Amino acid sequence: MENSDIKVDASKFRPESVPKSISAFNVGIREQTRKNPKWWEVGAAKYRQMRLNGETPFPKAVVLDGSPFEIPSRDSGRKLPCRIMKPDNGQYRTVIMHIHGGGWVLMSEEAYDPLLKFYANGAAALVISVGYRLAPEHPFPAGPDDCRDAAEWLVDNAEKEFGAPLQFVTGDSAGGHLTMLSYLHLARCRPNFRLKGLVPAYGVFDLTKLPQTFNFDDELILTEETMDHYIEVVCPGWSTAQIKDPATSPLYAKLEGLALPPTLFVCGTADVLVDDTAFMAVKWQMAGGEGMVKYYPGAPHGFLSFPDTIPVAKEAKRDILAFFNAKAG
Question: Does residue 301 have an active-site annotation?
Answer without folding.
Answer: yes
